[in-house]
Amino acid sequence: MLKPGITRFLLAALVVLFHISRFVFLGRFAVCSFFTLSGYWIALMFSNKYSKKAHPLKVFYTSRIWRLLPVFYTFTILGFAIWLLVDHSVIQQIIDLGLSDKVVFGISNITLLGYYSLPKIDILTPAWSLDIEMQFYLLFPLLFYISRNNYKVLIWLFFVMMAVSFYLCAGYNTYWVNNSLPTYLYFFVLGMIIFFKKWRFNANSEKICLAIFVILVGLQYIIPYSQTHYKQIGSMYYVTLSLVLVLLAVPTLANSVQVLSDKRDKFWGELSFLIYLGHWVLIRPYGVLSQNASSIMHVLYTALYLLCTMGLATAIYWLVDRPIEKLRHKWINNQA
Q: How many helices (H) and strands (E) does the chain have?
């Protein structure tokens, strides 16, 4: 069984590889798996920690904002600075935005809400998922309180929201609708179900599902129809394939959160968040360097990019994330 930190690190690595090589098409799968794990961990933390405070909603929202925004701001500043070095026209692009677009740009870069509806300019593209996370946090307390004594509500909600998601993707194929909370809510709900049901799968079930997972991924590169559709981001084929892969990964995800994490595993888990956001800081210069490079140089640039991404994530971990996290945990523990 994989430990929870390593599981999250592997998912973050898949997102990085997806962004630098469309040969790895598992980007949506990885993000939706993150959403599923988020549903589990948020339900666990709220049940065991936040709900026991005198003001649970105040502690919950303060804690979640404190967890996301400082790191987001750090990488946004770094990402903008490096983007400016690569493309000096970015400032003019912001100036040329209409008034309403400037308002959306400002609000989303301060609060994260609305980040995926950004008009043409998103400094940290992967942060769209943090926008979805923030939307989920707004809804979570209601979901928790109506389902904690009757998890069947979540099961019904999972199927209803899955149907809504596919309806939206099929009938309203727009950038905003396809990337709003209703499109992804059922993954968070799935994670909450794992928590309330305390799902744990035996080793054989997990291995069988992983074997089917590997076979299904491999078939995408072999079957002619799949070869022409598995890279079409946003298509119904891609959305359906990602859902099936997440469901096949549920035994692994559910089992991983039951494994006791040690200090090293926690490090990899915490680093995964920084890699997930931080890799975009360096992706623009990487793209410029590797665009017309020879095969050998492309490999060298890729290796250097991955090494620098790890170095950047590790530096931010020690210089920014750890000090802020210590303060956050101290504040939570001091709340009555």
A: 16, 0
